[in-house]
Design goal:
Blueprint: H1 10-32, H2 52-85, H3 90-112, H4 119-146, H5 154-179, H6 195-217, H7 219-223
Amino acid sequence: MLCCMPGVAFVPALLVSWSSAAFIISYAIAVLAGHVEPLVPYISDTGTKPPESGVFGFMINISALLAAITMYIRYLLIEKQNESSHFVRSSCNMFTLCMGLMGCTGMGIVATFQELAVPSVHDIGALVAFGSGVVYITFQSIISYKSCPRWNTYFVCHIRMAIAVISIIAFIPMIVFASKISVTKIDWTPGEKDYTFHFMSAICEWTVAFGFIFFFLTFIRDFQRFSLRISTEIHED
């Protein structure tokens, strides 16, 4: 089905489906193995212990790669559209791409360094991933408005901005509540110390994560109008 999509729409479609599967599969394995409580664990909690840690690390690293490819194609698309419309500065487009790639790097760090093994590095990776991701979708929303009405509909722009605003609103308390947790652990139970902070922070984390997924979902229609061509030149001496 993905191969039948016009243009390069299969790229964000694959990113969305793969990332959703990464979260759901690792969560299901962790819960069935009894490693986490079913009620809103951190995303990283579902990828800390084997066997789910291997699945989580592998799938999230692939998601980071797919996200980087999607962001680069999006950058090329805006550059191409900008040749005739001049709706955004090229430097702004490049800055947005760099922020997105920083977020992908953070995802790779999160996937590689488990929460309990190297907590400080893991937390830095998570902060970079979520922080850079929020900046990326915010700037992409602004760029989308600037490209209206030729390259985007206002309805799509409103959807993107709504997702960006919700992600920003969720990102701030996610950091605040997480900073109040005094111990790093994955086996949380209701009623114990710092559980409320953990619970609220985890809800916000899942909100931001799926905000990213829904945001990339809106790229599919744009990517249908764009195709990449590889040209080769043969020089004879």
